[in-house]
Amino acid sequence: MREPGRRAVIPSSVPLGGLRAALAPSALRFHRALRDPEAAQAECLARVLRAVSGSQQAARVPGFDRVKTPRDFQDAVPMVTPDGIAPDVERIAAGEARVLTQAPVLRFEPSGGSSGASKLVPMTQGLLDEFQRALSPMLFELLHRRPALRIGPSYWSISPMGRKQGRTAGGLPVGSVEDSAYFSRALRPLLSRVFAVPGAVGALPDVERCRYVTLWHLVACEDLALISVWNPSFLTLLMDALERHGERLAEDLERGACRPPGDAEEVRAVLSRMRFTRRPERAAVLRSALRHGLQARELWPRLSLLSMWTDAQAAHAVPAACRRFTGVEVQGKGLLATEGVVTVPLFDAPAPVLAVRSHFFEFLDAEQPGARPRLAHELERGRTYAVLLSTSGGLLRYRLGDLVRVEGFVHSTPCLRFAGRADSVCDLVGEKLSATRVSAVLDATLPALFGGERPAFVMLAPEWAQAPEPPAYRLFLETTAPETRLAEAAAAVERALCEGHHYRYARELGQLGPVRAVRVAEGARRYEARCIALGQRAGDIKPMDLHRQPGWSAHFSGVAA
Protein backbone atom coordinates (compact mmCIF):
# COMPACT_ATOMS: atom_id res chain seq x y z
CA MET A 1 0.00 0.00 0.00
CA ARG A 2 1.39 3.40 -0.96
CA GLU A 3 2.20 5.99 1.66
CA PRO A 4 -0.45 8.78 1.56
CA GLY A 5 0.63 11.96 -0.18
CA ARG A 6 3.24 10.39 -2.45
CA ARG A 7 2.96 11.95 -5.91
CA ALA A 8 3.53 8.57 -7.62
CA VAL A 9 -0.11 7.55 -7.07
CA ILE A 10 -0.80 8.43 -10.72
CA PRO A 11 2.13 7.83 -13.09
CA SER A 12 3.14 11.06 -14.80
CA SER A 13 2.90 9.36 -18.19
CA VAL A 14 -0.90 9.16 -17.79
CA PRO A 15 -1.65 12.91 -17.53
CA LEU A 16 1.22 13.72 -19.90
CA GLY A 17 -0.29 11.49 -22.55
CA GLY A 18 -3.59 13.31 -22.18
CA LEU A 19 -1.82 16.67 -22.24
CA ARG A 20 0.03 15.81 -25.44
CA ALA A 21 -3.23 14.81 -27.13
CA ALA A 22 -4.94 18.00 -25.97
CA LEU A 23 -2.13 20.16 -27.37
CA ALA A 24 -1.88 18.43 -30.75
CA PRO A 25 -4.57 20.42 -32.65
CA SER A 26 -3.04 23.78 -31.73
CA ALA A 27 0.42 22.53 -32.70
CA LEU A 28 -0.89 21.36 -36.06
CA ARG A 29 -2.46 24.76 -36.80
CA PHE A 30 0.77 26.49 -35.80
CA HIS A 31 2.93 24.38 -38.13
CA ARG A 32 0.51 24.94 -41.02
CA ALA A 33 0.68 28.70 -40.42
CA LEU A 34 4.49 28.63 -40.77
CA ARG A 35 4.00 28.01 -44.49
CA ASP A 36 2.04 31.24 -45.00
CA PRO A 37 2.96 33.86 -42.37
CA GLU A 38 1.33 36.67 -44.35
CA ALA A 39 -2.09 35.02 -44.11
CA ALA A 40 -1.59 34.07 -40.47
CA GLN A 41 -0.63 37.63 -39.58
CA ALA A 42 -3.65 39.03 -41.45
CA GLU A 43 -5.87 36.90 -39.21
CA CYS A 44 -4.03 38.19 -36.14
CA LEU A 45 -4.51 41.81 -37.19
CA ALA A 46 -8.22 41.27 -37.78
CA ARG A 47 -8.56 39.71 -34.32
CA VAL A 48 -6.70 42.62 -32.68
CA LEU A 49 -8.89 45.19 -34.46
CA ARG A 50 -12.07 43.40 -33.30
CA ALA A 51 -10.79 43.38 -29.71
CA VAL A 52 -10.06 47.12 -29.73
CA SER A 53 -13.16 48.21 -31.66
CA GLY A 54 -15.64 50.08 -29.46
CA SER A 55 -13.03 51.09 -26.89
CA GLN A 56 -11.85 54.56 -25.87
CA GLN A 57 -8.60 53.79 -27.66
CA ALA A 58 -10.40 53.12 -30.95
CA ALA A 59 -12.35 56.37 -30.60
CA ARG A 60 -9.09 58.32 -30.46
CA VAL A 61 -7.94 56.96 -33.85
CA PRO A 62 -9.58 58.78 -36.78
CA GLY A 63 -11.18 56.28 -39.15
CA PHE A 64 -10.40 53.28 -36.97
CA ASP A 65 -13.45 51.39 -38.24
CA ARG A 66 -12.06 51.68 -41.80
CA VAL A 67 -8.72 50.05 -40.95
CA LYS A 68 -8.51 46.66 -42.68
CA THR A 69 -5.01 46.03 -44.00
CA PRO A 70 -1.55 46.26 -42.43
CA ARG A 71 -0.87 49.40 -44.52
CA ASP A 72 -4.12 51.00 -43.23
CA PHE A 73 -3.07 50.08 -39.70
CA GLN A 74 0.39 51.60 -40.03
CA ASP A 75 -1.01 54.80 -41.53
CA ALA A 76 -3.76 55.27 -38.94
CA VAL A 77 -2.25 54.13 -35.64
CA PRO A 78 0.88 55.74 -34.14
CA MET A 79 3.60 53.70 -32.47
CA VAL A 80 3.54 53.79 -28.68
CA THR A 81 5.97 53.21 -25.81
CA PRO A 82 5.21 51.77 -22.35
CA ASP A 83 5.12 55.33 -20.97
CA GLY A 84 2.66 56.27 -23.70
CA ILE A 85 0.00 53.85 -22.48
CA ALA A 86 0.56 54.58 -18.79
CA PRO A 87 -2.46 56.97 -18.52
CA ASP A 88 -4.76 54.30 -19.99
CA VAL A 89 -3.36 51.69 -17.59
CA GLU A 90 -4.02 54.04 -14.66
CA ARG A 91 -7.65 54.46 -15.76
CA ILE A 92 -8.10 50.69 -16.00
CA ALA A 93 -6.49 50.21 -12.58
CA ALA A 94 -8.95 52.75 -11.14
CA GLY A 95 -11.85 50.65 -12.41
CA GLU A 96 -12.71 52.32 -15.72
CA ALA A 97 -14.05 49.95 -18.42
CA ARG A 98 -13.51 49.70 -22.19
CA VAL A 99 -10.34 51.76 -22.14
CA LEU A 100 -8.00 49.76 -24.42
CA THR A 101 -10.38 46.96 -25.45
CA GLN A 102 -14.06 46.04 -25.34
CA ALA A 103 -13.31 43.02 -23.18
CA PRO A 104 -12.88 43.36 -19.43
CA VAL A 105 -9.41 43.23 -17.89
CA LEU A 106 -9.08 40.07 -15.78
CA ARG A 107 -5.92 41.05 -13.93
CA PHE A 108 -2.67 42.95 -14.25
CA GLU A 109 0.73 41.32 -14.62
CA PRO A 110 3.84 43.26 -13.58
CA SER A 111 6.37 43.49 -16.39
CA GLY A 112 10.03 42.59 -15.89
CA GLY A 113 11.11 46.15 -15.14
CA SER A 114 14.70 45.57 -16.33
CA SER A 115 16.06 48.95 -15.27
CA GLY A 116 13.63 50.16 -12.66
CA ALA A 117 10.19 49.61 -11.17
CA SER A 118 7.97 47.24 -13.10
CA LYS A 119 4.95 48.37 -15.12
CA LEU A 120 1.48 46.81 -15.11
CA VAL A 121 0.23 44.99 -18.21
CA PRO A 122 -3.54 44.46 -18.51
CA MET A 123 -4.52 40.86 -19.22
CA THR A 124 -7.75 40.07 -21.07
CA GLN A 125 -9.12 36.71 -22.12
CA GLY A 126 -8.25 37.55 -25.71
CA LEU A 127 -4.60 38.14 -24.77
CA LEU A 128 -4.49 34.90 -22.77
CA ASP A 129 -5.87 33.07 -25.81
CA GLU A 130 -3.01 34.53 -27.86
CA PHE A 131 -0.48 33.27 -25.31
CA GLN A 132 -2.13 29.86 -25.60
CA ARG A 133 -1.64 29.89 -29.39
CA ALA A 134 2.14 30.02 -28.80
CA LEU A 135 2.60 28.07 -25.56
CA SER A 136 0.57 25.03 -26.63
CA PRO A 137 2.72 24.29 -29.73
CA MET A 138 5.84 24.88 -27.62
CA LEU A 139 4.76 22.37 -24.96
CA PHE A 140 3.64 19.87 -27.61
CA GLU A 141 7.06 20.15 -29.26
CA LEU A 142 8.74 19.18 -25.97
CA LEU A 143 6.51 16.16 -25.34
CA HIS A 144 6.49 14.99 -28.96
CA ARG A 145 10.17 15.40 -29.84
CA ARG A 146 11.60 14.33 -26.46
CA PRO A 147 9.67 11.21 -25.34
CA ALA A 148 11.75 11.00 -22.13
CA LEU A 149 9.89 14.08 -20.91
CA ARG A 150 6.63 12.11 -20.89
CA ILE A 151 7.68 9.72 -18.14
CA GLY A 152 8.40 12.12 -15.28
CA PRO A 153 7.27 15.36 -13.64
CA SER A 154 8.59 18.78 -14.61
CA TYR A 155 9.66 21.85 -12.70
CA TRP A 156 8.60 25.15 -14.24
CA SER A 157 9.89 28.09 -12.22
CA ILE A 158 6.98 29.52 -10.29
CA SER A 159 6.11 33.20 -10.40
CA PRO A 160 5.83 35.25 -8.31
CA MET A 161 8.80 34.33 -6.14
CA GLY A 162 8.75 36.32 -2.92
CA ARG A 163 6.14 38.80 -4.15
CA LYS A 164 2.67 39.16 -2.69
CA GLN A 165 -0.42 39.53 -4.80
CA GLY A 166 -2.38 42.71 -4.48
CA ARG A 167 -5.26 44.63 -5.99
CA THR A 168 -5.55 47.99 -7.71
CA ALA A 169 -7.74 50.80 -6.42
CA GLY A 170 -10.41 49.55 -8.82
CA GLY A 171 -10.27 46.03 -7.38
CA LEU A 172 -8.34 44.27 -10.15
CA PRO A 173 -5.89 41.56 -8.99
CA VAL A 174 -2.19 42.11 -9.65
CA GLY A 175 -0.17 39.01 -10.52
CA SER A 176 -1.07 35.33 -10.92
CA VAL A 177 -0.14 32.64 -8.44
CA GLU A 178 1.12 30.15 -11.04
CA ASP A 179 2.58 30.29 -14.53
CA SER A 180 -0.09 27.76 -15.55
CA ALA A 181 -2.53 30.70 -15.42
CA TYR A 182 -1.34 31.51 -18.97
CA PHE A 183 -2.80 28.20 -20.18
CA SER A 184 -6.48 27.49 -20.78
CA ARG A 185 -8.65 26.35 -17.88
CA ALA A 186 -9.09 22.98 -19.58
CA LEU A 187 -5.34 22.31 -19.49
CA ARG A 188 -4.59 23.51 -15.96
CA PRO A 189 -5.77 20.35 -14.14
CA LEU A 190 -3.52 18.23 -16.37
CA LEU A 191 -0.57 20.57 -15.83
CA SER A 192 -1.00 20.62 -12.06
CA ARG A 193 -0.69 16.82 -11.98
CA VAL A 194 2.70 16.81 -13.70
CA PHE A 195 4.32 19.74 -11.89
CA ALA A 196 6.95 18.61 -9.41
CA VAL A 197 6.42 21.70 -7.24
CA PRO A 198 2.94 22.88 -6.19
CA GLY A 199 1.91 26.35 -7.26
CA ALA A 200 1.21 27.31 -3.64
CA VAL A 201 4.99 27.71 -3.21
CA GLY A 202 4.66 31.04 -5.01
CA ALA A 203 2.60 32.39 -2.09
CA LEU A 204 5.57 32.26 0.31
CA PRO A 205 6.61 35.76 1.44
CA ASP A 206 10.28 35.84 0.45
CA VAL A 207 12.66 34.26 -2.02
CA GLU A 208 14.87 32.36 0.43
CA ARG A 209 11.99 30.42 1.99
CA CYS A 210 10.35 29.95 -1.38
CA ARG A 211 13.58 28.35 -2.62
CA TYR A 212 13.80 26.08 0.41
CA VAL A 213 10.28 24.69 -0.02
CA THR A 214 10.83 24.39 -3.79
CA LEU A 215 13.98 22.35 -3.13
CA TRP A 216 12.15 20.06 -0.70
CA HIS A 217 9.71 19.12 -3.45
CA LEU A 218 12.40 18.83 -6.11
CA VAL A 219 14.64 16.57 -4.05
CA ALA A 220 11.61 14.45 -3.11
CA CYS A 221 10.87 13.97 -6.82
CA GLU A 222 13.19 11.15 -7.88
CA ASP A 223 11.82 10.95 -11.45
CA LEU A 224 12.14 14.63 -12.38
CA ALA A 225 12.46 14.89 -16.18
CA LEU A 226 12.51 18.61 -17.06
CA ILE A 227 13.65 21.85 -15.43
CA SER A 228 12.40 25.05 -17.05
CA VAL A 229 13.55 28.44 -15.77
CA TRP A 230 13.96 31.82 -17.41
CA ASN A 231 17.26 33.31 -16.32
CA PRO A 232 20.11 30.76 -16.03
CA SER A 233 21.35 32.46 -12.85
CA PHE A 234 17.99 31.59 -11.24
CA LEU A 235 19.01 27.93 -11.54
CA THR A 236 22.52 28.65 -10.25
CA LEU A 237 21.10 30.37 -7.16
CA LEU A 238 18.63 27.53 -6.62
CA MET A 239 21.42 24.94 -6.62
CA ASP A 240 23.57 27.16 -4.40
CA ALA A 241 20.70 27.19 -1.92
CA LEU A 242 20.53 23.39 -2.11
CA GLU A 243 24.20 23.22 -1.17
CA ARG A 244 23.73 25.79 1.60
CA HIS A 245 20.66 24.11 3.14
CA GLY A 246 21.45 20.54 2.11
CA GLU A 247 21.80 18.94 5.55
CA ARG A 248 18.72 20.69 6.93
CA LEU A 249 16.73 19.54 3.88
CA ALA A 250 17.96 15.98 4.37
CA GLU A 251 16.77 16.05 7.98
CA ASP A 252 13.38 17.39 6.89
CA LEU A 253 13.03 14.66 4.26
CA GLU A 254 13.77 12.04 6.90
CA ARG A 255 11.18 13.47 9.29
CA GLY A 256 8.48 14.29 6.77
CA ALA A 257 8.70 17.96 7.74
CA CYS A 258 9.61 21.22 6.04
CA ARG A 259 11.37 23.93 8.06
CA PRO A 260 12.36 26.85 5.85
CA PRO A 261 14.73 29.36 7.49
CA GLY A 262 13.02 31.71 9.92
CA ASP A 263 9.51 31.32 11.21
CA ALA A 264 6.34 33.26 10.52
CA GLU A 265 2.62 32.65 10.73
CA GLU A 266 2.32 33.52 7.04
CA VAL A 267 4.83 30.77 6.14
CA ARG A 268 3.04 28.20 8.30
CA ALA A 269 -0.27 29.07 6.64
CA VAL A 270 1.19 28.38 3.18
CA LEU A 271 2.89 25.15 4.30
CA SER A 272 -0.37 23.89 5.80
CA ARG A 273 -1.75 23.64 2.24
CA MET A 274 1.00 21.17 1.28
CA ARG A 275 1.78 17.62 2.36
CA PHE A 276 5.27 16.60 3.46
CA THR A 277 5.76 12.85 3.89
CA ARG A 278 8.79 10.97 5.20
CA ARG A 279 11.33 10.34 2.44
CA PRO A 280 14.38 8.77 4.15
CA GLU A 281 15.62 7.23 0.88
CA ARG A 282 15.69 10.66 -0.77
CA ALA A 283 17.50 12.12 2.24
CA ALA A 284 20.21 9.50 1.73
CA VAL A 285 20.49 10.35 -1.98
CA LEU A 286 20.80 14.06 -1.16
CA ARG A 287 23.57 13.44 1.39
CA SER A 288 25.45 11.31 -1.13
CA ALA A 289 25.11 13.99 -3.81
CA LEU A 290 26.38 16.64 -1.40
CA ARG A 291 29.49 14.55 -0.71
CA HIS A 292 30.16 14.09 -4.44
CA GLY A 293 29.90 17.72 -5.55
CA LEU A 294 26.12 17.95 -6.00
CA GLN A 295 25.77 16.68 -9.55
CA ALA A 296 22.12 16.78 -10.62
CA ARG A 297 22.23 13.38 -12.31
CA GLU A 298 22.81 11.72 -8.93
CA LEU A 299 19.69 13.39 -7.57
CA TRP A 300 17.57 13.07 -10.71
CA PRO A 301 18.80 10.25 -12.98
CA ARG A 302 15.89 10.77 -15.44
CA LEU A 303 16.46 14.50 -15.88
CA SER A 304 16.87 15.00 -19.63
CA LEU A 305 16.31 18.68 -20.47
CA LEU A 306 17.07 22.16 -19.13
CA SER A 307 15.12 25.02 -20.69
CA MET A 308 16.43 28.57 -20.13
CA TRP A 309 17.44 31.81 -21.81
CA THR A 310 20.68 31.29 -23.73
CA ASP A 311 20.91 34.42 -25.90
CA ALA A 312 22.40 37.92 -25.53
CA GLN A 313 23.63 38.67 -22.00
CA ALA A 314 22.04 35.52 -20.56
CA ALA A 315 24.64 33.49 -22.50
CA HIS A 316 27.30 34.49 -19.95
CA ALA A 317 25.30 32.85 -17.13
CA VAL A 318 24.71 29.52 -18.90
CA PRO A 319 28.05 27.80 -18.07
CA ALA A 320 27.62 28.44 -14.34
CA ALA A 321 24.03 27.18 -14.46
CA CYS A 322 25.08 23.98 -16.24
CA ARG A 323 28.04 23.23 -13.96
CA ARG A 324 26.02 20.80 -11.85
CA PHE A 325 24.01 19.41 -14.79
CA THR A 326 26.65 17.51 -16.76
CA GLY A 327 25.14 15.53 -19.61
CA VAL A 328 21.73 17.22 -19.55
CA GLU A 329 20.51 18.74 -22.83
CA VAL A 330 19.94 22.51 -22.84
CA GLN A 331 17.28 24.17 -24.98
CA GLY A 332 17.22 27.93 -25.36
CA LYS A 333 13.90 29.63 -24.76
CA GLY A 334 12.12 31.87 -27.17
CA LEU A 335 11.41 35.54 -26.55
CA LEU A 336 8.42 35.82 -24.22
CA ALA A 337 7.53 39.12 -22.57
CA THR A 338 4.76 39.92 -20.13
CA GLU A 339 3.07 41.82 -22.98
CA GLY A 340 3.16 38.88 -25.41
CA VAL A 341 5.05 36.01 -27.05
CA VAL A 342 7.44 36.87 -29.85
CA THR A 343 9.11 33.51 -30.58
CA VAL A 344 8.90 29.87 -29.53
CA PRO A 345 11.75 27.31 -29.68
CA LEU A 346 11.66 24.39 -32.09
CA PHE A 347 14.37 21.73 -31.85
CA ASP A 348 15.35 21.71 -35.54
CA ALA A 349 15.09 25.46 -36.19
CA PRO A 350 18.17 27.71 -36.47
CA ALA A 351 16.64 29.99 -33.81
CA PRO A 352 13.24 30.32 -32.11
CA VAL A 353 10.49 30.83 -34.66
CA LEU A 354 8.06 33.77 -34.75
CA ALA A 355 4.80 33.11 -32.86
CA VAL A 356 3.00 33.80 -36.08
CA ARG A 357 -0.53 32.89 -34.85
CA SER A 358 -0.42 34.86 -31.60
CA HIS A 359 -0.12 38.63 -32.16
CA PHE A 360 0.37 41.04 -35.04
CA PHE A 361 4.06 41.92 -35.45
CA GLU A 362 5.98 44.70 -37.17
CA PHE A 363 9.74 45.10 -37.32
CA LEU A 364 11.76 48.31 -37.37
CA ASP A 365 15.02 47.96 -39.28
CA ALA A 366 17.78 48.86 -36.80
CA GLU A 367 19.82 50.42 -39.63
CA GLN A 368 16.88 52.35 -41.12
CA PRO A 369 14.74 53.43 -38.13
CA GLY A 370 12.86 55.98 -40.23
CA ALA A 371 11.65 53.46 -42.80
CA ARG A 372 8.18 51.91 -42.74
CA PRO A 373 8.29 48.88 -40.42
CA ARG A 374 8.44 45.52 -42.16
CA LEU A 375 5.97 42.69 -41.75
CA ALA A 376 6.82 39.11 -40.83
CA HIS A 377 6.99 37.83 -44.39
CA GLU A 378 9.25 40.75 -45.44
CA LEU A 379 12.19 40.12 -43.09
CA GLU A 380 15.67 39.42 -44.44
CA ARG A 381 18.17 36.88 -43.15
CA GLY A 382 21.05 38.41 -41.18
CA ARG A 383 19.35 41.72 -40.42
CA THR A 384 18.46 43.03 -36.95
CA TYR A 385 15.06 44.51 -36.13
CA ALA A 386 13.23 46.10 -33.20
CA VAL A 387 9.87 44.46 -32.42
CA LEU A 388 6.50 46.23 -32.53
CA LEU A 389 3.64 44.28 -30.95
CA SER A 390 -0.15 44.55 -31.35
CA THR A 391 -2.31 42.30 -29.18
CA SER A 392 -5.90 41.53 -28.26
CA GLY A 393 -5.02 42.92 -24.84
CA GLY A 394 -5.14 46.40 -26.37
CA LEU A 395 -1.49 47.14 -27.09
CA LEU A 396 -1.27 48.68 -30.57
CA ARG A 397 2.07 49.13 -32.33
CA TYR A 398 3.76 48.82 -28.94
CA ARG A 399 7.54 49.25 -28.85
CA LEU A 400 8.57 46.16 -26.96
CA GLY A 401 12.19 47.34 -26.71
CA ASP A 402 13.71 44.04 -27.87
CA LEU A 403 16.08 43.54 -30.78
CA VAL A 404 15.98 40.32 -32.82
CA ARG A 405 18.25 39.02 -35.58
CA VAL A 406 16.94 36.83 -38.42
CA GLU A 407 18.89 33.55 -38.39
CA GLY A 408 16.88 31.69 -41.02
CA PHE A 409 13.39 30.41 -41.75
CA VAL A 410 11.09 27.48 -41.02
CA HIS A 411 9.14 27.19 -44.25
CA SER A 412 8.38 30.90 -44.87
CA THR A 413 8.39 32.12 -41.25
CA PRO A 414 11.45 33.86 -39.81
CA CYS A 415 13.54 32.42 -36.97
CA LEU A 416 14.59 35.23 -34.67
CA ARG A 417 17.38 35.26 -32.09
CA PHE A 418 17.14 37.75 -29.23
CA ALA A 419 19.98 40.25 -29.66
CA GLY A 420 19.43 42.52 -26.66
CA ARG A 421 17.42 45.55 -25.68
CA ALA A 422 16.94 48.42 -28.08
CA ASP A 423 16.22 50.84 -25.22
CA SER A 424 19.11 49.93 -22.91
CA VAL A 425 21.02 53.19 -23.22
CA CYS A 426 22.47 55.06 -20.25
CA ASP A 427 22.82 58.80 -20.79
CA LEU A 428 23.81 60.75 -17.66
CA VAL A 429 25.57 63.64 -19.40
CA GLY A 430 25.30 62.85 -23.11
CA GLU A 431 27.58 59.77 -23.21
CA LYS A 432 24.81 57.60 -24.78
CA LEU A 433 26.27 54.32 -23.55
CA SER A 434 24.35 51.32 -24.91
CA ALA A 435 24.11 47.83 -23.45
CA THR A 436 25.29 46.24 -26.69
CA ARG A 437 28.41 48.44 -26.69
CA VAL A 438 29.15 47.62 -23.05
CA SER A 439 28.74 43.88 -23.66
CA ALA A 440 31.17 44.04 -26.57
CA VAL A 441 33.71 45.94 -24.45
CA LEU A 442 33.49 43.55 -21.51
CA ASP A 443 33.78 40.51 -23.78
CA ALA A 444 36.84 42.01 -25.48
CA THR A 445 38.73 43.21 -22.40
CA LEU A 446 37.99 41.00 -19.37
CA PRO A 447 38.87 37.41 -20.41
CA ALA A 448 42.51 38.34 -21.10
CA LEU A 449 42.82 39.71 -17.55
CA PHE A 450 41.03 36.89 -15.73
CA GLY A 451 42.42 33.63 -17.07
CA GLY A 452 40.47 33.50 -20.32
CA GLU A 453 37.01 33.96 -18.77
CA ARG A 454 34.88 36.76 -17.47
CA PRO A 455 34.54 36.89 -13.66
CA ALA A 456 31.59 35.13 -12.05
CA PHE A 457 29.62 38.38 -11.85
CA VAL A 458 30.22 41.48 -13.98
CA MET A 459 28.14 44.62 -14.30
CA LEU A 460 28.70 48.26 -15.26
CA ALA A 461 26.38 50.83 -13.67
CA PRO A 462 26.32 54.63 -13.21
CA GLU A 463 26.92 56.36 -9.90
CA TRP A 464 26.09 59.96 -9.03
CA ALA A 465 28.90 61.48 -6.98
CA GLN A 466 28.83 64.26 -4.42
CA ALA A 467 29.47 67.68 -6.01
CA PRO A 468 31.86 68.84 -7.28
CA GLU A 469 32.83 65.32 -8.37
CA PRO A 470 31.24 64.28 -11.69
CA PRO A 471 29.16 61.11 -12.08
CA ALA A 472 31.00 58.02 -13.29
CA TYR A 473 30.57 54.35 -14.03
CA ARG A 474 31.46 51.55 -11.63
CA LEU A 475 32.62 48.14 -12.83
CA PHE A 476 31.36 45.54 -10.34
CA LEU A 477 33.39 42.31 -10.37
CA GLU A 478 33.13 39.11 -8.36
CA THR A 479 36.66 37.70 -8.38
CA THR A 480 39.53 36.69 -6.10
CA ALA A 481 42.08 38.50 -8.29
CA PRO A 482 44.28 41.13 -6.56
CA GLU A 483 43.29 44.78 -6.43
CA THR A 484 45.89 45.62 -9.05
CA ARG A 485 44.09 43.34 -11.52
CA LEU A 486 40.78 45.04 -10.80
CA ALA A 487 42.38 48.41 -11.47
CA GLU A 488 43.76 47.07 -14.76
CA ALA A 489 40.29 45.88 -15.71
CA ALA A 490 38.76 49.29 -15.00
CA ALA A 491 41.47 51.00 -17.04
CA ALA A 492 41.01 48.61 -19.98
CA VAL A 493 37.25 49.12 -19.98
CA GLU A 494 37.74 52.89 -19.75
CA ARG A 495 40.08 52.89 -22.77
CA ALA A 496 37.65 50.86 -24.83
CA LEU A 497 34.66 53.03 -23.92
CA CYS A 498 36.65 56.13 -24.89
CA GLU A 499 36.76 54.80 -28.45
CA GLY A 500 33.12 55.92 -28.62
CA HIS A 501 32.70 59.58 -29.54
CA HIS A 502 30.01 60.55 -27.03
CA TYR A 503 31.65 58.84 -24.06
CA ARG A 504 35.09 60.25 -24.92
CA TYR A 505 33.67 63.77 -25.35
CA ALA A 506 31.93 63.60 -21.94
CA ARG A 507 35.24 62.53 -20.37
CA GLU A 508 37.21 65.27 -22.13
CA LEU A 509 34.75 67.90 -20.90
CA GLY A 510 35.07 66.60 -17.36
CA GLN A 511 31.35 65.87 -17.20
CA LEU A 512 32.04 62.19 -16.51
CA GLY A 513 34.61 60.60 -14.23
CA PRO A 514 36.67 57.49 -15.08
CA VAL A 515 35.51 53.91 -14.62
CA ARG A 516 36.39 52.49 -11.20
CA ALA A 517 36.35 48.80 -10.28
CA VAL A 518 34.44 47.54 -7.22
CA ARG A 519 34.90 44.04 -5.81
CA VAL A 520 31.65 42.30 -4.81
CA ALA A 521 30.82 39.07 -3.01
CA GLU A 522 27.84 36.85 -3.89
CA GLY A 523 27.16 39.16 -6.80
CA ALA A 524 24.32 37.20 -8.43
CA ARG A 525 22.41 36.70 -5.18
CA ARG A 526 22.74 40.31 -4.06
CA TYR A 527 21.94 41.58 -7.55
CA GLU A 528 18.75 39.52 -7.44
CA ALA A 529 17.82 40.92 -4.02
CA ARG A 530 17.94 44.52 -5.23
CA CYS A 531 16.09 43.75 -8.45
CA ILE A 532 13.28 42.22 -6.37
CA ALA A 533 13.24 45.38 -4.24
CA LEU A 534 12.90 47.38 -7.47
CA GLY A 535 9.76 45.41 -8.36
CA GLN A 536 10.97 42.47 -10.45
CA ARG A 537 10.02 38.81 -10.05
CA ALA A 538 12.91 36.54 -9.11
CA GLY A 539 12.28 34.17 -11.99
CA ASP A 540 12.25 37.00 -14.54
CA ILE A 541 15.43 38.81 -13.51
CA LYS A 542 17.89 39.05 -16.37
CA PRO A 543 21.65 39.35 -16.05
CA MET A 544 22.75 42.75 -17.34
CA ASP A 545 26.17 43.96 -18.43
CA LEU A 546 24.85 47.54 -18.16
CA HIS A 547 22.30 48.50 -15.52
CA ARG A 548 20.91 52.01 -15.81
CA GLN A 549 19.83 52.26 -12.18
CA PRO A 550 22.33 54.03 -9.85
CA GLY A 551 22.89 53.05 -6.24
CA TRP A 552 24.62 49.72 -6.73
CA SER A 553 27.78 50.70 -4.81
CA ALA A 554 25.72 51.33 -1.68
CA HIS A 555 23.77 48.11 -2.18
CA PHE A 556 26.81 45.88 -2.61
CA SER A 557 28.56 47.53 0.34
CA GLY A 558 25.54 46.93 2.57
CA VAL A 559 24.77 50.63 2.98
CA ALA A 560 21.17 51.68 2.37
CA ALA A 561 20.93 53.64 -0.87
Description:
This protein has two domains: 422 residues, ANL, N-terminal domain (Rossmann fold); 133 residues. The N terminus is likely disordered. A four-stranded parallel sheet has the order 3-6-7-8, with no helix packed on it. The chain has a four-stranded antiparallel sheet with strand order 11-12-13-14. 45% of the residues are buried. It is an alpha/beta fold and 561 residues long. Helix 1 crosses helix 6, helix 10 runs antiparallel to helix 12 and helix 15 crosses helix 16. It contains 19 helices and 19 strands.
What is the CATH C-level name of the largest domain? Alpha Beta
Q: Treating each run of at least 4 consecutive H or I residues as one helix, how many helices?
A: 19
| Sheet having the most strands | 4 strands, parallel
Share in helix: 25-40%
The rounded distance between the terminal residues' Cα atoms is 58 Å
- In spatial order, strands of the major sheet run 3-6-7-8
Fill in the keyword field for this structure.
561 residues; alpha/beta; Rossmann fold; 2 domains; four-stranded parallel beta sheet; four-stranded antiparallel beta sheet; 19 strands; disordered N terminus
